[in-house]
Design brief:
Layout (H helix, E strand, L loop, with lengths): L51 E9 L5 E11 L4 H11 L13 H18 L6 H16 L3 E3 L1 H6 L11 E3 L6 H16 L3 E5 L19 H14 L11 E6 L5 H20 L9 H4 L6 E7 L1 H8 L3 E5 L6 E6 H15 L3 E4 H6 L11 E2 L6 E2 L3 E9 L12 H19 L7 H10 L2 E6 L1 H7 L7 H28 L7 H20 L8 H21 L14 H5 L14 E5 L5 E5 L2 H8 L4 H14 L31 H11 L10 E4 L5 H13 L4 E6 L16
Parallel strand pairs: 4-5, 5-6, 6-7, 7-10, 13-14, 17-18
Antiparallel strand pairs: 1-2, 3-13, 4-13, 8-9, 10-18, 11-12, 15-16
Helix pairs in contact: 2-3, 3-12, 5-6, 7-10, 10-22, 12-15, 14-19, 15-17, 15-21, 16-17, 19-20
C-alpha cells in the first residue's frame, strides 16, 4: 500500500522498506496515530492543485561560464528561477543525460514522500491507511508549496540509498588514548565524505603539560587538531568543493586552553605573510590553504564559575586532565581578554556557556552535554546525530497579513513526525551513534525567514515588539513539537528508550520552557499568538507526564543555507535581512537590481497609501537606501534596518541587537541557535568581551562573532566598511 498519494504523478518507483535494525519498534500492537487533513482533499493529489511549468536550470561561475545546465525540468510555477537552479543542481539524482536522471520536482518530492510512506506503513505509525494517506498528502503539500524543507542529506539520500544517512549534525566523543583519537579522525572523514558536519570536545585528551604513563610529555589536543584539520581539508564535504565543517571545543579549565585560544591567530598571521608575498588571498587559495585550522570553528567552553571570576577579577585554575590536580593559576580576565583579542583578529574562538547548556538538558541522568555540531545549534550527548527540518515562516502569513497560528501548529507537528519516521530507517557512521539514535531519537525542527516575517509586520528586528513576536513563534513551534512527541509516544512505540532514567530532568526542563512561555509579554501580541505560545506548553507538560516523549530533543535554529533557497526565503534561520537591495546576476552579462519584496508589505502594514509606497520604493531603488525616502516617518526607519549598512546610508542593526534576538528565542529551543553576531570593522576587543559577557547574562548557550574585514579573505563584504 506504500505510495498511496503518488500512484500517477511522480515516476519514482514504488518505495520499499528494509528489515528494521535492532532497538527499532516494529509497530505491532500499537494503536497508531490518527491524522486529520488541513490543506488537502482525499482523492486529489497535492500536485494537481498547483500550476507547473518547464524550465532550464543553469548555474554559471563568476565569469559567466556555465558550470551546470539541465533543460526541460518541471517545477512548480510559483518557484523562483533561483530555487529551480539550486534544487535541480544539488538535489536531483542520477547522472545528467541518462534516463535515470530526475527531471521533475514531482519526482524529487515523490521520492522522499514515498519512502517515508513505506517506512510509516512498515512500522504501523498510523491508525489506518486513510490516516497515513492524509499524512503523506499533507507532507507533500508542505514540501511542494515551500512551507517546509528537510536538511540536505534527506534530499541527497532518501529513496536513493537502501538505508540513507539523513542527519546533517553529529557530535563525536573522544577519549585520552591513541586508538580513540585515530577513531575520531576516521569517523570525521567518513562524515565529511557524505556531506555532514561534526563537532567534538577535545578536553578528555591530556594536555601538553602532562606526562605520559610510560614517560615523556603528551602531545596535547592542539597538536592532534593539526592532524584532524589536515584530514578535513583533504576530504571535501560530500566530495564537493565546499570545505568540510567541524567544531572543536576545549574547556576553560584545560591546561592547554591559552594555546588553544591563540592557535588560530598564529596561523592567520602566517596567511597574511603569504598574501603579502604574493600568494592567492582567496579563501580557497594558496595562502589560506597552506595554514592550519581553516576547516574548523573553535569554541571555548566556559562555566558560570569562570564567568563570575571574570566579573570579580578573580584567579582561575587550570587542572590536569588525568589527575585533576591544579596546573596553573591565571587571571580569569586575562583568559577572557585573549579570547576576545583572538576573535577580533580571526573570528575564533567562539564561546559556549556550559552551565546554561546543561541546565536545559533533558537527559542529564545519562551524561552531561560536552559539545555541539559545527554551527553550535545542535547540543546533546556525545556520539549522537540529529536530522533537521525548517519551516518557512512567511508561508504562514494569511492574505490579511496576520500569522496563521493554527496552520503553523499543524505544520510543526507534521514535520516533527516526518523527522521521527526517519530515525529508525537511517544509517549512522558509527555503532555508538547508531545505538544512541535509537535510544534517544533527538530531532531538530526549526524555521527560516524570521527577519522577513518581522519586517512584513512592520516590526523592527531589534525592538521589544520584534523580540516578543519571535519568542511567541518559537514557543509555539517547540511546544507543539513536544506535544506531537508525547502523542507519538502514546500511540506508537512509547517514550524514547532512555526516557524513564531521565524522566525527572526531562519534566523539569519542560517546566522551564513553560515558565518562560508564561513570561512572554503579551502587550501588542495578537491574542491567538499569545494564547498558543502558552497553551502548547500546558499540553506538552500534561501529555508528557502521562505518556513521556518519543524524542529527547525536538528543536534547534539552524543556518538553513541551501534549503532557504529551496523555499525562496528572503532571510535564513533567525537572521535579519542583509540588505533592502539585492543584485541578481543575469545569464550572460549584467545584474538585475531587486528591491526586497518585504518592503512594500511592511509599508502597507505601517499605514502608508499605495501612492506613498510606490514613491518610497522608487527612492529605495534609485538611492539603495530607505533613509531619506519621501514621506517615510523617522519612527519607522528601524523596521527596515538590516544586518549591514546600505551603500548610501548610515543605519544597521547594532551588534547587541543580534544578541537580544537570540536571548528572546533561546528559552524555547531544545538546542541552541546558529548565528554569527556581525560586528563592524571598527569594533574593539573590549566590545567583543561585552558581547560574550552579555550572552552569558542573557542566558544564551553559545555565541560566535565576526568583525567585518578581519580576515584578508571573507565570503561577504560591504561596500562601506568603517563604522
Amino acid at each position: 500500500m506504500a505510495g498511496l498519494v503518488d500512484a500517477t504523478k511522480a515516476t519514482a518507483a514504488k518505495a520499499t522498506a528494509q528489515p528494521l535494525p535492532a532497538l527499532s519498534f516494529d509497530g505491532k500492537g500499537a494503536k497508531g496515530l490518527a491524522w486529520p487533513r488541513r490543506w488537502t482533499t482525499a482523492g486529489v493529489h497535492p500536485y494537481d492543485e498547483i500550476a507547473w511549468e518547464t524550465r532550464t536550470a543553469s548555474i554559471g561561475n563568476e565569469s559567466g561560464k556555465s558550470v551546470f545546465e539541465q533543460k526541460g525540468v518541471e517545477v512548480p510555477a510559483s518557484w523562483s528561477q533561483l530555487a529551480t537552479n539550486v534544487v535541480v543542481s544539488k538535489y536531483f539524482r542520477g547522472h545528467l543525460g541518462t534516463p535515470e536522471r530526475e527531471t521533475s520536482v514531482r519526482q524529487l518530492i515523490g521520492r522522499v514522500a514515498n519512502q517515508i510512506d513505506a517506512w510509516a506503513e512498515q512500522q504501523h505509525y498510523f491508525k489506518s491507511d486513510e490516516d497515513r494517506a492524509a499524512f503523506i498528502a499533507e507532507l507533500t503539500h508542505l514540501l511542494v508549496n515551500q512551507k517546509m524543507a528537510f536538511n540536505s542529506p534527506v534530499w541527497f539520500n532518501v529513496g536513493v540509498e537502501t538505508r540513507p544517512q539523513c542527519s546533517a549534525c553529529f557530535i563525536n566523543g573522544v577519549q585520552d588514548s591513541m586508538s580513540s583519537i585515530m577513531d575520531l579522525a576516521k569517523t570525521e572523514a567518513m562524515l565529511f565524505k557524505f556531506g555532514s558536519g561534526a563537532g567534538s570536545n577535545l578536553s578528555p585528551i591530556r594536555s601538553a603539560k602532562e606526562k605520559m604513563s610510560g614517560g615523556g610529555t603528551a602531545s596535547g589536543p592542539v597538536s592532534f587538531m593539526k592532524g584532524f584539520d589536515a584530514f578535513a581539508g583533504v576530504v571535501k564535504s560530500g566530495g564537493k568543493t565546499r570545505r568540510a565543517a567541524k567544531m572543536v571545543i576545549l574547556d576553560v579549565q584545560h591546561p592547554d586552553v591559552v594555546d588553544f585560544i591563540e592557535s588560530k591567530v598564529r596561523e592567520e598571521k602566517k596567511a597574511w605573510a603569504l598574501i603579502e608575498a604574493g600568494y592567492d588571498a582567496s579563501f580557497t587559495g594558496e595562502a589560506y590553504g597552506s595554514i592550519f585550522f581553516q576547516n574548523a570553528n573553535h569554541s571555548v567552553r566556559v562555566t558560570d564559575e569562570f564567568m563570575k571570576a571574570v566579573e570579580s577579577d578573580s584567579t582561575w585554575q587550570t587542572r590536569a586532565v588525568v589527575s585533576g590536580e591544579p596546573v596553573e593559576t591565571l587571571k580569569a580576565r586575562d583568559i577572557f581578554r585573549k579570547m576576545a583579542e583572538a576573535a577580533w583578529v580571526c573570528g575564533d574562538p567562539g564561546i559556549q556557556y556550559d552551565t546554561a547548556i546543561n541546565d536545559w538538558h533533558t537527559s542529564s541522568n545519562t551524561d552531561r552535554i560536552y559539545a555541539s555540531n559545527p554551527c553550535s545549534e545542535y547540543m546533546f550527548l556525545n556520539d549522537t546525530a540529529c536530522n533537521l527540518a525548517s519551516l518557512n515562516l512567511m508561508k504562514f502569513v494569511r492574505e490579511d497579513g496576520e500569522f496563521d497560528v493554527e496552520s503553523f501548529k499543524y505544520a510543526s507537528r507534521l514535520t516533527l513526525l516526518a523527522q521521527e519516521i526517519l530515525v529508525d530507517n537511517s544509517s549512522y557512521p558509527t555503532p555508538k551513534i547508531d545505538e544512541n539514535s535509537h535510544l534517544f531519537r533527538p530531532l531538530g525542527l526549526g524555521y527560516a525567514n524570521l527577519g522577513a516575517l518581522l519586517m512584513s509586520r512592520g516590526l523592527a528586528y531589534d525592538s521589544a515588539e520584534g523580540h516578543t513576536y519571535a519568542a511567541a513563534i518559537t514557543s509555539i513551534m517547540t511546544g507543539e513539537a513536544y506535544v506531537q512527541s508525547a502523542e507519538t509516544a502514546a500511540a506508537h512505540g512509547g517514550p524514547f528508550l532512555e526516557y524513564k532514567k531521565n524522566e525527572k530532568p526531562f519534566l523539569r526542563v519542560i517546566g522551564k520552557h513553560r515558565d518562560a512561555a508564561y513570561a512572554i509579554p503579551t502587550a501588542g501580541l495578537p491574542k491567538d499568538l499569545a494564547k498558543a505560545a502558552t497553551d502548547a506548553w500546558d499540553r506538552a507538560l500534561e501529555l508528557g507526564k502521562q505518556h513521556g516523549y518519543r524524542n529527547a530533543q525536538v528543536s534547534v535554529l539552524a543556518p538553513t543555507g541551501t534549503i532557504a533557497f529551496m523555499m525562496d526565503c528572503d532571510t535564513t534561520g533567525i537572521e535579519p535581512d542583509i540588505a533592502l537591495i539585492k543584485y541578481k546576476k543575469l545569464v550572460g552579462e549584467g545584474f538585475l537590481k531587486i528591491v526586497n519584496q518585504t518592503v512594500p508589505e511592511a509599508l502597507t502594514k505601517l499605514g502608508y497609501t499605495a501612492e506613498q509606497v510606490t514613491s518610497i520604493l522608487k527612492y529605495v531603488d534609485e538611492q539603495e537606501t530607505i533613509e531619506g525616502a519621501p514621506g517615510l516617518k523617522d519612527e519607522h526607519l528601524a523596521v527596515f534596518d538590516c544586518a549591514f549598512k546600505p551603500k548610501n546610508g548610515q543605519r544597521s542593526i547594532h551588534y547587541m541587537g543580534h544578541v537580544r534576538m537570540m536571548a528572546a528565542t533561546q528559552p524555547f529551543l531544545s538546542g541552541a541557535i546558529s548565528k554569527t553576531v556581525n560586528m563592524p570593522e571598527a569594533a574593539t576587543a573590549e566590545e567583543i568581551e561585552s558581547v560574550y559577557l552579555q550572552g552569558w547574562k542573557l542566558g544564551l548557550k553559545a555565541i560566535a562573532i565576526y568583525r567585518d574585514g578581519s580576515k584578508r579573505s571573507q565570503p561577504l563584504s560591504t561596500s562601506k566598511k568603517k563604522d
